[in-house]
Design a protein that fits this description.
235 residues, 31% helix, alpha+beta, 2 domains, Arc Repressor Mutant, subunit A, six-stranded antiparallel β-sheet, Chorismate lyase, 10 strands, single chain
Length: 235
């Protein structure tokens, strides 16, 4: 394994084994020395990976006893310091990811969208509901400049935006700027999201950039608060 972000690589491998059933709920993990030897990392690196999994609810550490795999969490973990698709987050905790009510349409851009995307009218909006085990957990508006999205989206679009942009358009999303916002009872879009998801929402406004620092798309991500756990690592 490369030294860069080594603890994250270890964390993701343990996570993969949990989801593959190699480590079962309630099972005790091998000892720290055994895991460190298996992954060819130092024990401090291994401990950092285990701590991340504990914070995300996948593991529990019992002093003097060991580290155990938890039952499947009742929430979806969203680490805000890591750029991940919602589908990836849903699947990472063992839920079946799907979507419904997909709509794609062109419309006049709102002033905020024009400012964020540095573009002219019109924009293309991808609107959809995301589900975890068939339960509605998120309502998304992905907003694209017309020169990027025009003629590329089809009404039957499904899947991950990041994969679509990379595979179909050769655009790689490098990072996003995220703003956590309150949801208003007077805003029409906020009210629609509350009606769809049942209230208790978190709104993430995210501007996604490519490797050349060009804004690619802007998203309004409404998350059902009871279904998500948001956290940020602060050093």
């Amino acid at each position: 394994m490369e030294k860069k972000l080594l603890y994250i690589r270890v964390k993701e491998e343990i996570e993969r084994r949990i989801h593959a059933g190699e480590f079962q709920p309630g099972e005790k993990l091998p000892s720290e020395p055994a895991l460190a030897k298996e992954f060819d990392v130092s024990r401090p690196t291994l401990r950092e990976a285990l701590k991340m999994l504990q914070r995300e609810g996948a593991l529990t550490s019992k002093n003097g006893v060991g580290t155990y795999v938890n039952e499947r969490p009742s929430f979806i973990v969203n680490p805000l310091n890591k750029l991940r698709s919602l589908g990836e987050m849903i699947k990472s905790v063992g839920y079946k990811e799907s979507e419904t009510d997909v709509r794609i349409y062109s419309r006049e851009a709102e002033p905020e969208w024009l400012e964020k995307l540095r573009t002219e009218d019109p924009v293309v909006v991808l609107e959809r509901i995301r589900t975890a085990d068939d339960q509605k957990v998120a309502f998304y508006y992905n907003i694209f400049p017309g020169d990027i999205a025009s003629d590329h989206f089809e009404s039957g679009f499904t899947g991950a935006i990041f994969d679509f942009l990379r595979d179909r358009l050769g655009i790689r999303i490098a990072y996003a700027l995220t703003e956590i916002c309150a949801v208003s009872t007077s805003d029409e879009r906020d009210c629609k999201a509350a009606e769809v998801l049942g209230g208790g929402l978190i709104l993430l406004k995210q501007l996604h950039f490519d490797e050349d620092d060009r804004p690619v798309f802007y998203s309004l991500d409404y998350l059902k608060s009871s279904a998500f756990k948001l956290f940020v690592r602060r050093d």
